Amino acid sequence: MTTPSLDLELDLLKDAVSMALDYANKLGTTAAEVAISKQQGLSVSTRLKEVETVEFNKDGALGITLFRDGCKGSSSTSDLSPEAIKLAVKAADDIARFTSSDPNNGLAEAELMATEFPDLELYHPQDISAEQLTELAARSEEAALNVDSRITNSDGASANAHTGLKVYGNSHGFLNGFSSSRYSLSCVVIGESDGNMQRDYDYTISRNFNELLSAEEVGQKASEKTLGRLDSRKIATTELPVLLAPDIATGLMGHLVSAISGSSLYRKSSFLLDSIDTQIFPDWFSIEEQPHLKGALASAIYDSEGVATQDRSIIKDGVLSTYLLTSYSARKLGLKNTGHAGGIYNWTLSHTGQTFDELVKQMGTGVIVTEVMGQGVNAVTGDYSRGAAGFYVENGVILYPVEEFTIAGNLKDMFQNIVAVSSDRDLRSSIRTGGILLSDMKIAGN
């Protein structure tokens, strides 16, 4: 729900977009699109309950892209006065006159534009001060430091409150704007045992401030995760089942996002070229995209080109159902725009019914991976090799933490070798999944 002052600001931004589009039309351009974003935020970081930084930001800009017979020009301005907008439009047009023509340039098709704009409850204003954010961060640290004497230090806590406005319009006649909010709290602590030091963290994030986890819960979880890593051991080189913690499982699915994105496909830099209607996961596995979940972190009525978003199956019965295409990549590939300019929208993975703890028991002997590091992923071949840390499990029981090992495989095989997905999903990102159990991976250790 918007406030009168916010409605007024949205109207002013829409007027600026309309003005830019009118200028572009008078210049005789083929088409134009204009976007304005304005953000305002407050961030506070503490260390050992003392304030380290307080940052307030308020910024925004208008960006315009013009098309002239296949040629494209773009410019931006943070000054929204009529004269500055006119100069920005002229600059974009001057650039378009000197760029090479590309038949794939242009707006998304008019018939794909969103026409209905239900409230997705993305905006939850909260009157919050730097002092209140400081208190939150300090409370999380205090709770963390009180968990156990082995928690010897804090690496800091951070509390953030951000709101934003976005308006988009184009020469199809599309013009719409919306407001959003995002709040977060994180805490990082250091533990020590017999000279061995470890660090870990926890965080909470939501569009609604009142739905954040308590500062005490964030701090306590950060300490519990750190304590779990103390006295880590090395592991011998072997091949074992691997259970990815939910936040690591999210990263695994992020490689799928990249592989089926239009830009990777037309550049032929994806290991999933020509894979539509191909079985790439087990037949029980599915991914549903749900752009219209109320209050979710990755919800949107339309993408950054004004194309209406819609519920769709990304993976159905293990089969790849769609690529992720913008207007440009769709034309480049001779396919239909899927409304993914700007990213993905609330991917929800199917699960096999077990909790994460039940998957630990099901795994028997294997490794839980709670951290990965390094950039050892080849997008073209799918080869995967990353440093990792986690826990060694035997007979379904966690025995001890392990570190400084590498997990390796190929993403195609890893996708096919998914045995189970836990039902306790992590909802803190655009990919909503529980832990993922893989039948086996190569583990390089001592």
Automatic annotation (TrEMBL):
Enzyme class: hydrolase
Database matches in SUPFAM superfamilies: Putative modulator of DNA gyrase, PmbA/TldD
Entry similarity comment: Belongs to the peptidase U62 family.
Sequence ranges assigned to domain Metalloprotease TldD/E N-terminal in this UniProt record: 32-96
NCBIfam families membership: PRK11040.1
Domain Metalloprotease TldD/E C-terminal: 238-445
Domain (Metalloprotease TldD/E central): residue spans on this chain: 123-230
InterPro entries assigned to the protein according to its UniProt record, in alphabetical order: Metalloprtase-TldD/E_C, Metalloprtase-TldD/E_cen_dom, Metalloprtase-TldD/E_N, PmbA, TldD/PmbA_N, TldD/PmbA_sf
EC number: 3.4.24.-
Protein name (record): Metalloprotease PmbA
Keyword annotations: Hydrolase, Metalloprotease, Protease
GO terms for MF: metallopeptidase activity
Residue ranges the record marks as coiled coil: none
Pfam families xref list: PmbA_TldD_1st (PF01523), PmbA_TldD_2nd (PF19290), PmbA_TldD_3rd (PF19289)
Taxonomy of the source species: Bacteria, Pseudomonadati, Pseudomonadota, Gammaproteobacteria, Alteromonadales
